[in-house]
Amino acid sequence: MGAETTQTRSSAAWRLARRQHGVVARRQLRDLGYSEKAIEHRVRTGRLHPLHRGVYAVGRRQVDAEGRWMAAILACGDGAVLSHRSATALWGIGRERLWERTLDSTKGLVEISAPCSAGARRAGLRAHRRPALPASDMTTCQGIPVTTIVRTLLDLATLEPPNRLERAVNEADKRDLIDPESLRRAIEGHAGEPGVRPLRRVLDRDTFLLSDDELELLFHPLAREAGLPLAESKVLVNGFEVDFFWPDLGLVVETDGWRYHRTPSAQTRDALRFQLHTASGLTPIRFSHWQVKHEPDHVVAILGATASRLQA
User: Quick one: pLDDT at residue 263?
Assistant: First the structure.
């Protein structure tokens, strides 16, 4: 009967370890019926390998990134989730910060959010104390508790410069985790929180839209400043309606919000439009609405250089 009980406990421990990427916590082993003496015996005989105080790799000392993340979460106790740069690494949209206290440069500094600072002083861990992290900001990915993609990007916005933050937003869109328009709407529910303002700046650049009237009102003076005559607006060229057209120069200018998340059919139509304009001898240029509104000098410079080349 004793041997059968031991085998049952062992099987349960292995199943738990497999679900947790090869790691278990001491408290979990106690819940399965292991005594302190039995746990210490398995540590001495190499069946359990300490990773953090009270957290072990099962069967082998080395664990992969998922096992390392899961071990950190177990070390920080109930309510802990992977967050910040470690969460971006799990989501596949960023990298962890290297752990500077080790010679192994491939090992990252694991960042955790937890109700208490249980892992704050553990080697290789950085625990962010968050007593009030709501359930809506937590989820799982590959079985690992982690902050949601919205919360992860908000946290990243407090740490990284705009170019890296924009790269992460791009990656999240490519992986179909969230598109910038949905993200822009989602952060409105986090008004006043750290990270909202820098993330909003990044998103507004590429989700910014002008009405047709606003666009014409802003664009025509820029074209005049670049030395171009008055353009024809909203006319059909090669079967497509274009925003601005100079037939004498063969110049077509299109503007849009440069949405990240475009359907395959929309992308195909955009490519066909560009191909037909080019094949017919026209010069197509594309500006975003943000550039027209907030980067007028750049728009004027591009228009001026293009007009000079075409007039020559």
Answer: 60
